[in-house]
């Protein structure tokens, strides 16, 4: 059985739902304050490229300190899963997770990006949100 399938089965057993990104969304997995700092700096790049529509940052369902899930919405579609992975790395997403996603792409997985969330996203406490207008120009 694949590692991804095992993870999905475990998430479902815990009562989580599987969420996949829309065609214009990026999923950012943040586990440390340093990654959150890269997330904030990466938003500036997207803003300057006029690609950022909005974002939301929520506590991860794991409940661990500093673990967050970010959803960044672009004002255009993502140009394939390789661009999605690149932009997610630019935004500070966990590199181990991105490495697994890249390996899955190489093996033919069509959409390796996903989040395990509580049944109602509202149960994952929002810690930050914003739009193109609210992102600081300072990196």
Describe this protein with a few key phrases.
single chain, 4-stranded antiparallel sheet, 6 strands, two-stranded antiparallel ribbon, 24% strand, 139 residues, alpha+beta, 36% helix
Description:
- It is a single chain.
- The chain is α+β, with helices and mostly antiparallel strands.
- The chain has one domain (3-132).
- It is built from 4 helices and 6 strands; from the N terminus they run H-E-E-H-E-E-H-H-E-E.
- It has helices at residues 3-13, 33-48, 80-90, 95-106; strands at 17-19, 25-30, 52-59, 68-74, 115-117, 126-131.
- Helix 3 packs antiparallel against helix 4 (95-106).
- The longest helix has 16 residues, at 33-48.
- The model has no long low-confidence stretch (mean pLDDT 84).
**Total beta-strand segments:** 6
Major sheet attributes: 4 strands, antiparallel
β-strand percent reads 15-25%
Q: Summarize the helix and strand pattern as letters.
A: HEEHEEHHEE
- Global geometry: globular
Spatial strand order of the main sheet: 2-4-3-6
Q: Could you give a quick summary of the protein structure above?
A:
The chain is an alpha+beta fold.
List the helices and strands and how they pair.
Elements: H1 3-13, E1 17-19, E2 25-30, H2 33-48, E3 52-59, E4 68-74, H3 80-90, H4 95-106, E5 115-117, E6 126-131
Antiparallel strand pairs: 1-5, 2-4, 3-4, 3-6
């Amino acid at each position: 059985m694949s590692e991804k399938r095992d993870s999905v089965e475990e998430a479902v057993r815990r009562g989580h739902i599987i969420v996949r990104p829309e065609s214009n969304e990026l999923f950012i997995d943040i586990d440390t304050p340093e990654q959150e700092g890269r997330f904030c700096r990466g938003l500036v790049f997207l803003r300057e490229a006029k690609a950022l529509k909005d974002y939301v940052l929520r506590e991860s369902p794991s409940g661990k300190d500093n673990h967050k899930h970010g959803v960044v919405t672009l004002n255009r579609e993502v140009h394939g899963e390789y661009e999605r992975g690149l932009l997610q790395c630019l935004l500070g997403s966990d590199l181990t997770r991105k490495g697994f996603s890249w390996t899955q792409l190489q093996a033919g997985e069509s959409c390796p990006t996903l989040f395990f969330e509580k049944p109602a996203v509202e149960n994952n406490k929002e810690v930050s949100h914003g739009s193109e207008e609210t992102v600081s120009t300072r990196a």
